[in-house]
Amino acid sequence: MPTNILIIGASRGLGLALAQEFASDPNYHIYASVRSPAPDNRLPANITQVILDITDDTSIHTAASSIPALDILIVNAAFGGDPERLTDVSPERLLEYLQPNVVGVHRVVRAFLPSLRKGEGVKKIILISSYQGSLEGQKHASAEESYSGPYSVSKAAMNMLAVQYHNELNGYTKEVDERRFVVVPIHPGWMATDMGKKGGDGGQDPRISAKGIVGVVNGLKKEDSAVFYQWDGKVLPW
Asked: Residues of the signal sequence (predicted)?
């Protein structure tokens, strides 16, 4: 039986690169979520497109009903916005970050938990986060290193989602052998994607990040849950 993976936000950039990297291994079947379908003849045989909008409950639940069982869920969809100071944004603007980056992530994880709970073995939930969400990292950041205050707030909240999913899905057990879920946030690095270019030029090819992330995901063990990783396997501070 192939390992079933769902990648949320796989139409371009990192999500597309992740789908392609996983698809290079025939032992994986990838469900790639997109808002608008691409022609089927562009896709490898082990990639299935799933129409999904992370802000739409109906869309999410329709997609969830079409996937019977999952081994790995990767939530990549996010809103980056432009560089902004937290002190300059309205509460309404802050919600534009929190809705997709926190509430939308929670919508997706909850909707696909039944699929993840089917079958045997350890299941993995990967949240594509950012070092901008590291409290320790931001505490020492310069103005140039801090991309956007509202974005950082949303990614820090996403990281806490990962920790709480880890606790609750594993029943707060302290026994590593009893864990059924591995839940981690991963920082993909600064990439030359549409969002990454808002911070300037010089980001790395998302295919490099994707290759590293696939290696991290494949190597995750029960004891690695609730650890904040970088794309190359480096452990980051919360």
From this structure: 1-19
Phi–psi pair at 33, nearest 5 degrees: -85, 135
- Residue 108 and residue 74: Cα distance in Å, rounded? 10
69 contacts 44 by C-beta, under 8 angstroms: no
Question: How far is residue 150 from each of residues 72, 83, 84, 93, 140, measured CA to CA in Å?
Answer: 29, 9, 7, 8, 17
> In 3D, which of 204, 199, 202 has the Cα closest to residue 17?
204
Which residue's structure tokens are 């432009």?
Answer: 82
How many whole angstroms separate alpha carbon 77 and alpha carbon 17? 13
Residue 207 has which token pair? 């295919």
The Cα–Cα gap between 200 and 140 comes to 21
- pTM beyond 0.90, yes or no: yes
CA distances from 122 to 36, 68, 116, 145, 175 (A): 32, 17, 9, 37, 14
- Side-chain-side CA neighbours of residue 155 (13 Å): 29
Beta-bridge partners for 34? 51
- β-partners of residue 183 are 125
Cα–Cα dist 41/18, whole Å: 19
* Mean pLDDT of the 6-11 span: 93
Q: pLDDT tens-digit profile of 101-160?
A: 999 999 999 999 999 999 889 999 999 999 999 999 888 887 666 668 999 999 999 999
